[in-house]
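Sequence, please.
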């Protein structure tokens, strides 16, 4: 070991206080494996997952429209059934109202039309 500027340098990897060198190497390996998994996920099924999330959102908005359409002046179900479903829908009503008011372009719907690339 040689001293440079009052500090010791060695050929061994730096050991953090109380943490063995193999543990830091293991952590680096786990981070690398996680990064590879994320890259493979993005390359293979990310688009499928995003498409399914969009479809789920559309179905959820349609369900809330059918059950609570009277909030926007479109009564479809009798109030009795609507009130029975109210406790399950309350968390999503604010998000649903915002999605109805969000401005959309016709090109946003191109994903739902067959044959449009």
């Amino acid at each position: 070991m040689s001293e440079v500027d009052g500090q010791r340098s060695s050929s061994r990897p730096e050991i953090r206080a109380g943490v063995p060198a193999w543990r830091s190497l293991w952590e680096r390996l786990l981070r690398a494996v996680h990064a590879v998994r994320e890259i493979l996920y993005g390359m293979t099924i990310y688009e499928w997952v995003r498409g399914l999330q969009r479809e789920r959102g559309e179905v959820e908005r349609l369900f809330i429209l059918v059950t609570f359409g009277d909030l926007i002046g479109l009564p479809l179900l009798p109030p009795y059934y609507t009130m029975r479903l109210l406790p399950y829908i309350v968390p999503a009503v604010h998000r649903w109202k915002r999605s109805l008011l969000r401005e959309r372009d016709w090109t946003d719907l191109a994903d739902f039309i067959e044959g449009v690339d």
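The longest helix spans residues 21-44.
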